[in-house]
Amino acid sequence: MIINIPLILIFQMNGEDSFEGICYYLLVLIIILVILYIGLYLYQRFVGSKKTPQHICNYCGRMVDAVSDCCYAPVEEFFLYRKCRLCGKRCAVVCKNCKRKIF
Ligand SMILES: [Zn+2]
Ligand SMILES: [Zn+2]
What we know:
The protein is of the alpha+beta class. The chain has helices at residues 4-15, 17-48; strands at 54-57, 62-68, 75-77, 82-84, 93-95. The N and C termini lie far apart (74 Å).
């Protein structure tokens, strides 16, 4: 039994050669996806958060700085929502000059 175990392992390794190939391919694919995701996250975190978001205000009629409606602080913009940078809650954006809601 003890001698047989390494033989079985070698047989399994040879027999599942194509299976391991698929596993390796999937692993590489997952690593690429993770790197892309981290890259996107870091981009949003450091590049996207540095610039103050600008929006057209219907009342002022020009591009204005968008601030949060809760604290009138700069907002962090994500794909589907915005977050107040002061209190960290989800918020709507208002015009920095006239304090009226944008959109
Ligand atoms: Zn305005
Ligand atoms: Zn706030």
